Amino acid sequence: MTTLGLIGAGHIGSQLARLGVANGYDVVVSNSRGPDTLQDLVTELGDQARAATPAEAAAAADLVVVTIPLSGIASLPVAELAGKIVIDTNNYYPQRDGNIPALDDESTTVSELLQDKLPDSKVVKAFNHIYASALTEDAQPTGSDNRRALIVAGDDASARLRVTELLNTFGFDAVDLGPLAEGWRIQRDTPGYGPRMNDAELRAATVAAKRYRDM
Ligand SMILES: NC(=O)c1ccc[n+]([C@@H]2O[C@H](COP(=O)([O-])OP(=O)(O)OC[C@H]3O[C@@H](n4cnc5c(N)ncnc54)[C@H](OP(=O)(O)O)[C@@H]3O)[C@@H](O)[C@H]2O)c1
Question: pTM for this one?
Fold first, then answer.
């Protein structure tokens, strides 16, 4: 049995928890306010789920998802996440997250920032360009016609492969963008950010993407 840890249990975290339980994972959910505030979600998810602190969720999990506003990454449990695959769903919205100069001048990307914060983890970017509700609405079995595709990006090839398997299990094809530095191809305001696309459409959209400075 694989354990999926969620740091963040809002729109995306709760949906990924639902997909985890539906696909046979044990799930540990966490947020900033504490496990007591997650009892309704845990009740809905059933026996395969429990609530914990972010550090406990990280320690218990084989795969961890960080799905919180970007401004929250400073408080992540770095030690408990060491050695783990950490899936990053985060996006940068300055009006929500405050201005981050290295993202404003495009000298880095959202998931590279997380990788810098978690040097001993294997960060993989995924699930950042799909609306939360579509995670359950658009999921389809392997081999379905016109199946929706989602990206993976990460500096560790084996971690990208593991998350590709997870995407497939959860109901999606995967488009491998390569290293984290390529993650800008699916950032806010790029053609692939949001709409439902199959593998060929998403590949074309990520090739056509432009940096903010070139828009
Ligand atoms: N919503 C979407 O459709 C969507 C789609 C793709 C990607 N994303 C991205 O995914 C991330 C999460 O989005 P969301 O819409 O799911 O956010 P959300 O609904 O606002 O939920 C955020 C969750 O993060 C928790 N949290 C906040 N700060 C935390 C911290 N320091 N430590 C632990 N948990 C913390 C919150 O817990 P408390 O309530 O206890 O603070 C809450 O459970 C964002 O970067 C967003 O841009 C969102």
Answer: 0.98
Structural domain boundaries in the chain? 3-214
Q: Is the CB of 187 under 6 A from ligand 1?
A: no
pLDDT for 4 equals: 98
Distance 53 CA to ligand 1 centre (A): 15
State the closest ligand 1 atom to the C-alpha of 97, by its place in the atom list counted from 1.
45
Residue-wise over 146-159: b if at least 16 C-beta within 10 A, else e?
ebbbbbbbbbbeeb
35 lines ligand 1 (CB under 6 A): no
Q: For the domain bounded by 3-214, which CATH number is listed? A: 3.40.50.720
Atom of ligand 1 at shortest range from CA of 72: 31
Quote the percentage of the chain above a pLDDT of 70: 100
Q: How many whole angstroms separate alpha carbon 47 and alpha carbon 85?
A: 24
Phi, psi of 5 (to 5 degrees): -105, 135
Query: For ligand 1, is residue 67 a contact (CB within 6 Å)?
Result: yes
Question: Using CA atoms, how far apart are residues 2 and 87, in angstroms rounded to an integer?
Answer: 15
7 lines ligand 1 (CB under 6 A): yes
List, for residues 85-110, the tens digit of each pLDDT value. Answer: 999 999 999 999 999 999 999 999 99
Burial class (CB in 10 A: 0-12, 13-18, 19+), 70: buried
Q: Is the CB of 14 under 6 A from ligand 1?
A: no
